[in-house]
Design brief:
This protein has 311 residues and is mainly alpha-helical. It has 12 helices and no strands.
């Protein structure tokens, strides 16, 4: 029993740690990969190109994908279509989660929930908890295991949207300058990918790739707005689509949108600044005022208490 619990804990912690590191620290993983390649380049050349190519693939593609691919396909047959579509939309909004597909994400979510329920039940049984309470603990752990991955996914999507919102004015400035300098819209996108990095730049790079493979610009822009799910980005893509339909100069549209986005950023900053005094009331009343009252009235209260006790 102890060996089984230890094995389950190991696999659960390893899987959760790997998914979180893959999802939230891609830059760290890229640096490690480059460092390993530098170390390999300093040694003697190795044989077995196919073996090296296999090892060069990410762990999710070498191990997780084969292990969960068939199981994901089997479980997706019984998964409601609405759940699958919702998972795909959230993964797209988050920019992916550890390179997992919707089916693999659902499989790993179910695995994590079951393992968490088993561990909770085993811990409750080891603590000599009553049977009905053990079942309640297991059900609660199962619910937490099902909700936690989606909570992390939503958090990553929220951070990604905030990053897009923050980078949009600078992106529009680069596009405006590039177009006014004589480049076409496609050339401006190429220049953007050379000058900046980020989630929004990745979406524009994907937009450029879709246009190059033959997708109509309107459809590519509309798909980008759906993937980003940011109001300002949706407004920008809608303006470009209308400019393309009406034959309006893209440079003028970009200039107007850049000014409008910066004005909205200034208004949002002012709104947050006006909300700050109200939000400061909670820590002020709960933590600062009591400390001030203790410092100011404490000695007087002690003196009064001592006086009444002596009498």
């Amino acid at each position: 029993m102890l060996l089984l619990i230890t094995t389950v804990i190991f696999f659960t912690v390893f899987l959760l740690t790997y998914v979180l590191v893959s999802a939230y620290a891609p830059a760290w993983g890229a640096q490690v990969t480059l460092r390993l390649k530098e170390l390999e380049g300093g040694g003697a050349p190795r044989a077995g190109g196919e073996y090296d190519e296999e090892l060069a693939r990410p762990f999710s593609q070498r191990v997780l994908a084969p292990a969960t691919g068939s199981l994901a396909g089997f479980l997706l047959r019984f998964t409601p279509r609405s759940t699958k579509l919702m998972t795909e939309e959230r993964l797209a909004a988050a920019g992916g989660f550890g390179g997992l597909s919707a089916g693999q994400f659902l499989v790993l979510t179910g695995f994590f929930a079951v393992m968490l329920a088993v561990l909770s039940a085993a811990a409750a049984d080891a603590a000599r908890v009553a049977a009905n309470k053990t079942v309640g603990v297991a059900i609660s752990a199962l619910a937490v295991g099902l909700v936690l991955p989606f909570f992390l996914l939503n958090g990553k999507a929220k951070n990604r949207k905030a990053s897009m919102q923050r980078d949009l004015p600078d992106v529009l400035d680069i596009l405006t300058v590039s177009v006014e300098a004589g480049l076409g819209f496609d050339g401006a996108l190429v220049k953007l990918s050379e000058k900046m990095r980020g989630a929004l730049v990745d979406e524009f790079s994907r937009l450029l790739q879709e246009i190059r493979v033959g997708v109509p610009r309107r459809d590519a822009l509309h798909a980008m707005a759906v993937r980003c799910d940011v109001p300002d980005v949706s407004l920008f893509t809608t303006s470009l689509i209308q400019a393309d339909q009406l034959g309006v100069s893209i440079g003028s549209v970009l200039r107007v949108q850049s000014a409008a986005v910066r004005e909205k950023r200034r208004q949002r900053a002012q709104e947050k600044a006006m909300k700050a005094p109200i939000k400061m009331l909670i820590p002020l009343v709960m933590f600062i005022f009591p400390a001030i009252f203790i410092v100011l009235l404490g000695p007087a209260m002690i003196q009064l208490f001592t006086t009444f006790i002596k009498r």
